[in-house]
Write a structure and sequence with these properties.
There is one protein chain. The chain is α+β, with helices and mostly antiparallel strands and 258 residues long. It has a five-stranded mixed β-barrel with strand order 1-3-4-5-6. Helix 2 runs parallel beside helix 3, helix 2 runs parallel beside helix 5 and helix 3 runs parallel beside helix 5. It is globular, with a radius of gyration of 19 Å.
């Protein structure tokens, strides 16, 4: 498999291929990462790896389990692995996503506004904290459609599952938004490719990080779609008994402060 060494950006979030990731970068270790990425020609991809944190905070804690209470103060210089334990690779989920930074804008205060898009799933092989920011050796994880013995082709099965997931997602979104069916996303607004559908629905569903992480690291598209179908049906049944909540944007996560 293809391997690479890339800057590592840990977050309390899961990034999926094809999804947009806005970042507010203010810690020096991540600002150093952005400065390094800006040295890459703008015609070349400015890539880094986003990985979800098992334990810890992307803005390093002042004490175990405690948030940084001086968020408005000038960011202190921290070592690349601060807040992530003695062996950082054990603190992160092993499957992450490569992000391509299409926009990196430095503000007057030295912080950065970043807009990146998830591209490819990768597995962490090792983490290096010897430089000004974390880097990781990663291997690319191919996206297999998946197949079940005795079924038609993998593509046919994934396509059928994607249709079922979209129907379940519309019902879920309707419950979540408390809106009429015609005001929701229609089939024409969503892609036909089963793997793209699986990532969009995984990102849009209101799930905790462990659930989203399981979807990201599913071995193939069909497995991810089957898990999503079960999750959507379960969540829709639960939401039926809860107050209406605002609809979820399919393509953009909230800006993550770093």
């Amino acid at each position: 498999m293809t391997t690479a060494r890339l800057p590592l950006f840990p977050l309390n979030a899961v990034l999926f291929p094809g999804l947009v990731l806005p970042l507010n970068v203010f810690e020096e270790r991540y600002r150093a990462m952005m400065r390094e990425l800006l040295r890459i020609d703008e015609d070349e991809p400015r890539r880094f790896v986003v990985v979800a944190i098992r334990d810890g905070r992307e803005t390093a804690p002042t004490a175990t389990g405690m948030p940084d209470t001086a968020a408005s103060a000038p960011p202190a210089e921290r070592a690349p692995a601060d807040g992530f334990g003695p062996d950082p690779v054990q603190t992160f989920h092993r499957v992450g996503c490569v992000a391509d930074a299409a926009k990196i804008r430095e503000r007057a205060d030295g912080s950065y506004e970043v807009l990146a898009t998830g591209t490819t799933r990768v597995r962490l092989l090792s983490v290096d904290a010897s430089g000004p920011f974390l880097t990781a050796e990663v291997e690319e994880l191919p996206e297999d459609p998946g197949a079940v013995e005795g079924e038609d082709t993998a593509e046919d099965e994934a396509g059928a599952l994607a249709e079922g997931v979209l129907r379940a997602f519309r019902s879920y979104q309707k419950r979540l938004a408390g809106a009429s069916e015609r005001s929701l996303t229609t089939g024409a607004d969503l892609p036909d490719d089963p793997s793209v559908v699986s990532y969009l629905v995984a990102a849009a569903a209101v799930l905790d990080i462990p659930s989203k992480q399981r979807l990201l690291q599913a071995p193939d598209t069909a497995t991810r779609l089957r898990e999503e179908l079960a999750l959507l049906r379960k969540e829709t049944a639960v939401i039926r008994y809860l107050p209406s909540l605002p609809a979820v944007d399919l393509t953009r996560d909230p800006m993550h402060p770093n």
